[in-house]
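Internal QA ticket QA-208
Title: Verify multi-chain structure generation after dependency bump
Assignee: T.L.

Test input:
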Amino acid sequence: MLTLQNVRRTFDSQPVLRGVDLSIARGQIACLLGPSGCGKTTLLRIIAGLEGADSGDVLLDGDSVMRVPVHARDFGLMFQDFALFPHLNVADNVAFGLRMHGLPRAQQAARLHEVLALVGLSDFEARDVSSLSGGERQRVALARSLAPNPRLLMLDEPLGSLDAALRERLVVELRAIIKHVGLTALYVTHDQREAFAIADVIAVMNAGRIEQVASAEDLYRRPATTFVARFLGLRNIFPVIGWRDGAAITSAGVFPAPQETQALLLHPDDLRLTAPETPGALPATIVERVFLGDSYRCLALHNEALLMFKLPAHSAPPAVGAAVALLPTRIVPLAS
Amino acid sequence: MPFYRLLWLLPLAFLAVFFLYPLLTILDVSLRQDGVWQLQGFAALFTQPHFRETLWFTLWQAALSTFLTLLLALPGAYLFARYDFPGKRLLAALAVLPFVLPTVVTAVAFLSLLSVLNNALMSLLGLSQPPLRLEGTLALILLVHVFYNYAVALRIIGGFWANQNARLEEAARVLGCRGWRLWWEIRLPLLRPALWAAALLIFVFTFTSFGVVLILGGRYSTLEVEIYRQAVVFFDLPVAAALALVQIAVMLALMLIYTRLQRRMALDMQSVRSVARRPAHARQWLLVGGNIALMTALLFAPLLALLLRAFTVGGEGFTLYYFLTLGENLRRSPLFVPPAVAIGNSLFFAIITTLLALLLGTLTAYLLASKASRLLRWLDPLFMLPLATSAVTLGFGFIVALDEPPLNLRTSIALIPLAHTLVALPFVVRSVLPALRALPPSLPEAAQVLGAPPFRVWRLIELPLISRALLVGATFAFTVSMGEFGAALLITRPEMPTIPVVIFRLLGQPGTANYGQALALSVLLMLVCAVSFILIERLRDAGTGAF
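Actual output:
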């Protein structure tokens, strides 16, 4: 439905987007996930028409929208700070887009009630936006961008300014509302948990490029690049330092891997304690053990390599200094 | 309570004696003649159409000046908030220069501009009569008012605009808003507090316009000019006092609204990164270029014309004659003093004013910055009152209040520094107070714990940290005193006039000699103000201190 083709943008001779390709299917919630400064907000603004691209194209249902001005694109955009108009009350904020589209008054009122009910703010019509709490502002902003029934809803870190507890609750609610309306949405965030909670498909961005597009599960289980793995907080990444008989040499050992592999991820979730004689087991010494409440996080030294793994809280964990054997059951090859 | 806290009483006593007492005396004079209560003065205001007309003119010329200034400054404010272009900072700084120029200098500058333009047009078109006859017209008054207040509008509106959340406008555009609707529905409504604040301030300034109207206004006269005429020319003190009271009432009301608005603006301000960009298309460059041209023509042409005229007046090419003869009394009139003497007088008064205002202003700032008592919150507006009282009213108050024992200062040379200190005090307080409030209390506390007694704490820790603000305040006080006209005209002793008073006298006399000397003095005064102004701009960190 939305297709980006080789979108490039440079600010002050600093490349911000270095050729972005992406497709989003109708009804899908896609997420742009990446650290700040990776270009995700710029990409969103280009799609919205608030910025221009140096080259590349943005297609909606096969037609380029690059020449369509912002106000005529019929997109919805929710800003990080919500950008509620301070001189208008809740109802006037939400109805603003309806008015701009020249909807008859009666229909405006009907749609206003409908959207406010959808976000749970039915009694808030006459309220001043400055009197609202953070969560209420977020709902007003959502209602405002939903009201004109946009062809595409974009959300730029819409929960970024709220506290963590509220964020966790609202993200689930947000997904429910978007799915209920059946919109195609593009959600920008730097928060992995938010992305996992809301998105059908996640595009991880780094330094102006998309590194991987996948579902949350695939992303976590099979990250494609070192950056994606690191960004998701995964440890046990070992660069390939040489090849022997088609197997990659790393400080953690030699493992079979495809040819372009730059590094290997010994996935921490799939690193188990095992008997020393098990084939493929890595002998190691426990160097650190931290109780996290729901689990133990252990660090073990194997040759030069530090391996991280977790043990359930109710298990009897090996003591620091104990000799153990670890079996990696999922080794993920990482490109670049 | 340590003895040094008693120092706080000093500014309070000063205000009581030299501000509140004269004001109360004005009230007394307006209501009582020869010990008998009567409303003669006020009756005159309502019965004589002349006063009604004056009040009406004062109101509508101020409203019209305000409207025109906003109208002309709005595009400028927009461009300054939205675009980056070469020389932007310099232009923004220079645009404020007119604001610190004394009214007499400005009046002379516009007279110079008129004669330069007329000369050029006459020789160009072969006319025998000057085509632009603007002297004494409303158009000229309005033009000068715009000249003066353009920077006020530019700073308040432009600053507010630049700090405004750019996402609001983008949100509106994404929702389908564009063109004039964007202006009407988003930009202007969001700007409303800044527009009102600027309008109010400009209205206050133009409502109390004195020098401009007195020198350029011809038959027009504002309340301020009328107070001066009634007090000095006709010596009708009850009427002058009644007029002054009307003026004070209006000013007080406006200042109250203004402080409220300022508080609202502070609430609305969100600090966001600048969204100013370089103009991208030819059309945007044209907009920016056109506006710079307009600003230059409006703001700098009069000043350049003043310089040009001062060195070429008399029609014999470049001459320094009027600068070199400033030490001579070209009129040989016993009533007049050589202009150079006025320079000495003004410097003398300005130095005393600076010292006095700095002392009292710093004490006041300390008083207001301390959280000692709830009484203080009530005092804050009291110290801003002199700002709401026009200079002519202050001068008039001095005349009626300080002319008999116990305080007979009628012929004292102290009158002018005292009046100027009152005018300069709010500027010093406004400069020093933010610096004091920004001073972390832990610093003097640390010094105390390390064993420094109170005065050494102040000298070694606080003084160095607020020295920049003090210097800004001092420069303000000095500049205000050098250029102040309204009060000086009323209370100056004939043989000891200040520069603005002498310029005014010279302008009132016929002949090239007088005019040339007026120009020369104006140029000198303009340079003093320009130098002070550059000093202030350099010393003042962005964001600290405000008018």
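Spot checks passed. The beta strands of chain B are 32-33, 36-37, 403-404, 407-408.
Status: verified.
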